[in-house]
Each structure stands twice: as structure tokens, then as C-alpha cells.
Predict the structure of Tetratricopeptide repeat protein.
Amino acid sequence: MVPELAEAQQRMKDGRPQAALDALAPLMARQPRHPNANMIAARALHRLGRTGEAFPHLRVCAQLVDEMPNPVAARIAVARVFSTMGAPEEAEALLRDALAREPRSAEAMVRLGDLLRGAGRHAEALGLYRDALGLVPDSGSLWASAGVAAHGAGALDEAVPAYERALALDPGETYVYSNLLAALLELGRPDDALAHAERWVTQAPGDIEAMAFHALLLVETGRMDEAAPLIDFDRLVRTHAIDTPAGFSGLDAFNRALEAHILAHPALATPPEDHPTWHHPALRIASGLNRGESGPVALLEDAMHEAVERYFAETGEADGHPFLRHRPEDYEIHAWAAVLDGEGNQHPHIHMDGYLSGCYYVTIPDEISAPENGAGGGVVQGGFEVGRPPRELRIGADFPTRTVKPHEGLMVLFPAYLYHGTVPFRSGGRRICVAFDVMPAGRGEMHAREAAS
């Protein structure tokens, strides 16, 4: 291998894209149309956020595919990078050309199917997956992709057996279960969905999404006695006011210091419009709130750890509860702040990365904390509601719920598998809370990397 290429590849593996470009410079000066050098340069520039500069290098690669030892494989490889860089049209043209040259290339079919499915062209993708399955009938991942495409195309009667076949071939790919259960619910087959959910929790005990579906489907099918331990709000949803941290005259002084820290946090921003759960124009979120922080955030993290230990002590696990018996021996806390100005709501959701979830209320508008809010059993505007599933899951049963009326200084903890959200509210004030997940040790670092990316 050319020395400059070897050095550039190593620097890319080391996460040093600029150093890779520097290593390539002499080779690019001698051979500006070297295919491998242009490919590495394109990837390095993209990783540096200079995607516009990457495209000319990638187009050189596209022009040279016929000079490569395997022109079809070369087209597929270049297409994959075009797709990664947000150029689906150029990726599609290369993949269609690859299929024209090698009509029985299962890899080209799958790559093109994935591209079209990502663009919402589910019916076209499904046709390609069907053709590929004729060549590779024992690929669990391919059956799963066919299920997703069929699901997206509205062909639920085809999606369900595709998901089932995927699980039969790759039982460890438990992510397929959520798609399968959603399809069965759309078809009005909750009993079949429950049977699969029970296989899922047996196969992956303690899996948060599996437990969420299991609880929902037990209620949906009328098996309330079995559902009761999973939705025992008295036992599983715990609230208390924290003690005033050391160094502050009272809880209000602590909360005002915490509020000022959150509002000045550099990561505080409105989530993107295409985010299905978090986007709201009045909402701002600061992720990674407790990463190496001092001051009021560090004191709040101490209070969170105390609350978690208190939760474990109060709920117990001696009876073998399916959630409590899987609590992590060692854990870490991942926290983020949420600021709602004037109005807002949070759609029901679960925290699949966590085990136990919690929320601390820093600032609450007067309209929410007022005695008349929720008086006489009425709706608690701006309340924390646990239990209610999202409408898109098509749960028809009247699922039990519990609403907690927030106040400043309140800490709430609950299992991550319980759907929860914020009751809509309007106010002249600002609502600030710090949400957090209790994760098995090591998972929080992975979660932080994913959030940063």
C-alpha cells in the first residue's frame, strides 16, 4: 500500500481527520485522481463538517468506478458514502447502475432498498427486499427490513410474518419485537401481541421497552391482576421534597441558584423540529447537565443519589417484582434540564436507555402550584402524568394513570418503562425541571456519546 494511504487510514481510525488530510497531501499533489486517496479525503472532510468540499472528491471516485477490480462493488461503496453525506440522488443513480450491470446482486438490492425506505418510498423498497430474499432467504436482518418496508407501505399482513420470520432466524434481535407488536395492535390483534410480548420479556428480562409493552398489553387484554404489579403507582412512583443542600439558607435560594445555572448553560437549546418527542417551540433542553459540574448541579446530583437509594430501600425486591429484581448493582445518573416558557406539554414516552427515571422541579409557575389547580379531582394543568400510553400505539383500554402536582423542590422517581408526560398548560411564568435516568454503570457514557452525535 502507498505509505501516505496507510498513514491517512490510521489517522482516520484514530479519529484525526485533519491529520489524515495532511498525510494525503503529498499523494494528492502527485495523483489528484487517485481513487482511494479521494475516498479518504471525502470521508475526512465530511467528518470535519466540510461536506461541501467532500463532494468533488467523492465524484472523482464515482468517475473511476470502472477502473476498480470490481466495478459493481465500487459503485455500491461510493453510493454508501454519498448516502451518508446526504446526497441520496447520486447514491440512487450509482446503485441502479450497479443493479443494471449485476441484476442478481443482493447487496445492491438491499442498499437501494435501504436508501428508498429512508426516503419514505416504502413500496419500492419492499419490492427490492422481496427480490433480495429470493436470493438470501435466511437473512434475519433482511426479513426485518422487509417488515419495516411493508409496515410503512401499509401492508400489515405482510409486515407481521416478515417480523416473525426475522425473529425466528435471529432471536437475539429483540428490537424487531416493538415493530411486530405495533403492527399487531394496528391490525386489532392484542392477544397475539401479548403472546409475543411475553416471549420478549422472557427472552430479555428487565428490558425497559419489553416491560412497557407487556404492561400495556396486559391491560389491553383485560388481564388486570397480572398487570397490577407493573402499574402499582403507590409502590413504584415515589415523591418527596429534598432537604436544603449545605451552604444555602433555604430551598428557594438553592433553586434560584440552580435556575440561574441552567439558564446560562451553553447547551440550552430548542430541540429540532423533526424530533418526534422533544420538539416544542416553547421548550429548551440542556443535555449532559451533570457532566463534571460543580456548584448547585453537583449538590443536586448528591440529592439524586440519595433519592435513588431511598427508592430502592422503600420499594424493596424481596417479592421478586419483575422490575425491582433487575435493579443495577452499580449505576450512574445522566441528567438534563428542560425549560418551558409560558406553555407546553410533553407527549407520553418512556426512557429506554434508563432503568429508573426521575425529575426534580426547580421553578414552577404560580398557575400550576396554585391550590385551585386540580382541586376537587380536576385536571392538574402542568402536572406530571404517569401511565397514559401515546395514541399511536392504539391502546383502546382505559389505562390507569396517576398525576403528580409539581411544586418547587419536589423529587419524583418512577420506573423507566412507565409512560409519562406533562399535562398541557398555559402560564405567564417559566417551568424548569431537571430530568434524569438511572443507568447501569457504563451505559450513561455510551448514551452521552450518542446524544452528542
Observations:
- The beta strands are 238-241, 283-286, 331-349, 356-363, 384-386, 402-404, 410-415, 420-440.
- The two ends are 32 Å apart (CA to CA).
- The longest helix spans residues 295-315.
- The mean pLDDT is 92.
